[in-house]
Amino acid sequence: MAESAVNAVLGNLSHLAVRESTFLCAVTLEVGLLRDELKRLQAYLKDADSKWRSGNVRVAVLVSQIRDVAYEAQNVIEAADYMEKRNRLKRGFMGAISRPS
């Protein structure tokens, strides 16, 4: 369900915040605000579960939209993490080949 997608984003977001906050202080506030919003969504999804199971169309649409956005957020976090690792590896490789012997 959408709750598990939001849980996954929260876990990755927390990991990202801890790792990056040492040198990106401005991002820390934004990550905190996003974490708070995701926790509100989590609480809503727990309450919405019974309505969703009973076939409430509005709740089903909203849960589907939340799930889609959570997956998209997860993809963005993974892409940013991949790019950061790739850049770090590239810097390390370029530094290794450009050093005088």
What is the number of helices?
Answer: 3
How helical, in percent, are the residues? over 70%
Cα Rg: 19 Å
| Terminal residue distance | 56 Å
- Element pattern in H and E: HHH
Biggest beta sheet summary: none
* Helix vs. strand class: mainly alpha
Look at the structure and give the mean pLDDT: 79
Query: What is the number of E strands?
Result: 0
Instruction: Identify the overall geometry.
Output: elongated
Low-confidence region ranges: none
Summarize the structure.
About 90% of the residues lie in helices and about 0% in strands.
Question: Can you describe what's shown?
Answer:
With 101 residues, the chain is mainly α. 89% of the residues lie in helices and 0% in strands. It has 3 helices and no strands. The termini are far apart.
Strand-helix topology:
Blueprint: H1 2-20, H2 25-53, H3 57-98
Helix pairs in contact: 1-2, 1-3, 2-3
Pfam families: Rx_N
GO molecular function, one term: nucleotide binding
InterPro entries: RX-like_CC (IPR038005), Rx_N (IPR041118)
